[in-house]
């Protein structure tokens, strides 16, 4: 018999064929004359219905056990599944004790419940759909950049710079000895931006998409210690609009791709998760306010905020959520943040008395900040002066070189990939959109 994946078997292309299918049991229904099984191997959302005579029943055929079924594919009399496998032989490859197995027949387990089993939750329908969607969303991101002439750069995971200057670095050391492996302190990257800036000076348009690490002592629903970030850097940008255009295009294109390619998985996922604040890619004009306008909006609101809203304050989650609501529950760009709030690389708007930098955040319903970006300070004298103020001019002498040798106006942004998934699927907790979440006090597996 030909070995088929479940996705091939259910496609209907092999009716009448003698086949072998391998997978795990998602349901077991013994009836008088027949035994009905659902076999899933993750290749598709659908499971393959297996019909066997009761003689083939075996006490080891239980929810979660691994099986190999040989038989003939035929048209199913039931409308729910067009194809079923009439079994001649069922072999239990690995049994699964139903008493100990944490997932039970016919129960719809919540995302909170299955989160307790990071090594097993991929066996549930909801989480396997989520992981297939995540995989397709990865493809969507790469497709967007490929179609738009960006070169992908593998920026390093180990680095000696603290790009964001926020002091949330994990240090890298040799575990078994006191040997200093690197001659300078080394850290896990918080952002590939500075390496991308190097590359934008040769390729004009570059991006990176990989793991990013922050020692944020936060138990929030939108922070992880290890998350995936999509970062892009574009040379010859004249204004923040050039940048927000790329952010908006990428967001829209990736969202449309996912909804078009994963419709069935998205539907199934939403049988388990009520999407509270899903963003549709169509029909929404991305709205823009300046930071100063945002502060005015917050100060005129009747809502009492826990954090201050004076000009110069960083926007907190509660502020971001309010702004999104105020603007009609659509994605909102906030531009021109106070200069002093932004890292050394942000471009000085040289305005006063309210001194701002050409930085932008994209806020989205339910999540708040999804992207952060800016124009970069390309003027050597201004950049050098700012680095000197903080004593960083030696550390970043290579970065200053980029401004000495063919400097051009440029800018870029980073999008939190997990927050993107939260946003398009309406998932409340970031830990439910990544296979193995890492956060403070938790590094399971
Ligand atoms: O706003 P951030 O800190 O921006 C940067 O790191 C820039 N250097 C990016 C660039 O311009 N190339 O981070 C970018 C995005 C945030 O908007 C957020 O979506 C996500 O990364 N993010 C996190 N996601 C999950 N857990 C965390 N701890 C995150 N911190 C940031
Ligand atoms: Mg930010």
From TrEMBL:
Belongs to the class-II aminoacyl-tRNA synthetase family. The lineage of its organism: Eukaryota, Metazoa, Chordata, Craniata, Vertebrata. Coiled coil: none annotated. The keyword Aminoacyl-tRNA synthetase applies. Residues 131-437 form the Aminoacyl-transfer RNA synthetases class-II family profile domain. Transmembrane segments: none annotated. The keyword Isomerase does not apply. This is asparagine--tRNA ligase. Pfam families: tRNA-synt_2, tRNA_anti-codon. Keywords: Aminoacyl-tRNA synthetase, ATP-binding, Ligase, Nucleotide-binding, Protein biosynthesis. It comes from the Eukaryota.
């Amino acid at each position: 018999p030909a070995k088929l994946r479940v996705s091939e078997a259910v496609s209907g292309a092999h009716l009448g064929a003698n086949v072998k299918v391998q997978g795990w049991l998602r349901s077991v229904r013994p009836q008088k004359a027949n035994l009905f099984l659902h076999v899933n191997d993750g290749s598709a959302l659908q499971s393959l219905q297996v019909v066997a005579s009761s003689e083939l029943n075996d006490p080891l055929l239980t929810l979660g056990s691994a099986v190999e079924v040989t038989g003939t594919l035929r048209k199913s009399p039931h409308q729910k599944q067009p194809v079923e496998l009439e079994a001649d032989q069922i072999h239990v490859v690995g049994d699964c004790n139903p008493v100990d197995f944490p997932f039970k027949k016919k129960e719809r387990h919540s995302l909170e419940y299955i989160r307790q089993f990071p090594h097993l939750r991929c066996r549930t329908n909801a989480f396997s759909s989520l992981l297939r969607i995540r995989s397709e969303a990865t493809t969507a991101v790469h497709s967007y950049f490929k179609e738009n002439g960006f070169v992908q750069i593998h920026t390093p995971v180990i680095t000696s710079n603290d790009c964001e200057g926020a002091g949330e670095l994990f240090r890298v050391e040799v575990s078994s000895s006191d040997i200093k492996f690197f001659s300078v302190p080394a850290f896990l990257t918080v952002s590939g931006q500075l390496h991308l800036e190097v590359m934008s000076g040769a390729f004009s348009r570059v991006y990176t998409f990989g793991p990013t690490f922050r020692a944020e002592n936060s138990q929030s629903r939108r922070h992880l210690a290890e998350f995936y970030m999509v970062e892009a850097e574009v040379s010859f940008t004249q204004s923040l609009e050039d940048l927000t255009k790329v952010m908006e295009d990428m967001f829209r294109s990736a969202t449309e791709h996912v909804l078009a390619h994963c419709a069935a998985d998205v539907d199934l996922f939403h049988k388990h998760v009520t999407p509270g604040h899903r963003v549709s890619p169509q029909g929404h004009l991305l709205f823009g306010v300046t930071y100063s306008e945002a502060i005015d909006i917050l100060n005129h609101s009747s809502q009492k905020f826990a954090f201050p809203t004076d000009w110069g304050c960083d926007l907190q989650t509660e502020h971001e959520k309010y702004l999104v609501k105020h603007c009609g529950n659509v994605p909102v760009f906030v531009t021109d943040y106070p200069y002093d709030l932004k890292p050394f690389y942000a471009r000085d708007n040289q305005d006063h008395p309210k001194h701002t930098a050409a930085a932008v955040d994209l806020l989205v319903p339910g999540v708040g900040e999804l992207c952060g970006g800016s124009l970069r300070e390309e003027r050597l004298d201004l950049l050098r002066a700012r680095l000197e103020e903080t004593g960083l001019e030696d550390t970043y002498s290579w970065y200053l070189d980029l401004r000495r040798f063919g400097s051009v106006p440029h800018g870029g942004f980073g999008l939190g990939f997990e927050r993107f998934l939260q946003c398009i699927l309406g998932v409340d907790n970031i830990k439910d959109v990544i296979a193995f979440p890492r956060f403070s006090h938790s590094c399971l597996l």
